[in-house]
């Protein structure tokens, strides 16, 4: 019996260009400034990619494969915890769609093929909004936000 799948979609508008948004997602030295991680790959279809923590330990937090690359419009990758790298059924998929929108960019991130209610599902629902807010902040102001910040107690 297969497990129920779900998806998460986040749309944001960024005062930038499609090229700069695409580079921010795929270039490790830029991703580290807003994500605290580097996205490492040669960005060719079929190639592996790793989401590496930008610290001394260089912990690999997420792994996957590049599915589709159409710079600067679209990037599709698979997404899994390293412990499930060899189990394709445990992989979810992330699509980054970058579109010009007057003098800005509309970035749509679709994370689908998620196991509903799983730790990964719960984690990305908290993670994507702050990461994409930090990306927007970096590209618009030159400074990302603290993606590891925690909510303050009331």
Description:
With 154 residues, the chain is an alpha+beta fold. It has helices at 18-26, 28-35, 119-141; strands at 5-14, 37-40, 48-53, 60-70, 74-79, 92-101, 104-115. A 7-stranded antiparallel β-sheet has the order 1-7-6-5-4-3-2. Strand 6 (92-101) and strand 7 form a beta hairpin. Helix 1 packs across helix 2 (28-35) and helix 2 packs across helix 3 (119-141). The longest helix has 23 residues, at 119-141. The protein is globular.
Keywords:
154 residues; 3 helices; alpha+beta; single chain; 38% strand; seven-stranded antiparallel beta sheet
Give a brief outline of the structure:
This protein is of the alpha+beta class and 154 residues long. Helices cover 26% and strands 38% of the residues.
């Amino acid at each position: 019996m297969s497990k129920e799948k779900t998806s998460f979609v986040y749309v944001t508008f960024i005062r930038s260009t499609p090229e700069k948004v695409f580079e921010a997602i795929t270039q490790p030295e830029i991703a580290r400034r807003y994500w605290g991680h580097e996205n490492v790959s040669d960005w060719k279809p079929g190639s592996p990619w790793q989401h590496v923590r930008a610290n001394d330990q260089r912990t690999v937090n997420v792994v996957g494969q590049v599915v589709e690359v159409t710079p600067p419009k679209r990037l599709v990758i698979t997404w899994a915890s390293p412990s499930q790298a060899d189990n394709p059924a445990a992989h979810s998929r992330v699509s980054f769609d970058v579109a010009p929108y007057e003098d800005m960019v509309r970035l749509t991130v679709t994370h689908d093929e998620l196991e509903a209610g799983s730790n990964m599902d719960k984690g990305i629902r908290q993670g994507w909004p702050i990461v994409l807010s930090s990306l927007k902040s970096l590209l618009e102001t030159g400074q990302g936000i603290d993606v590891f910040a925690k909510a303050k107690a009331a």
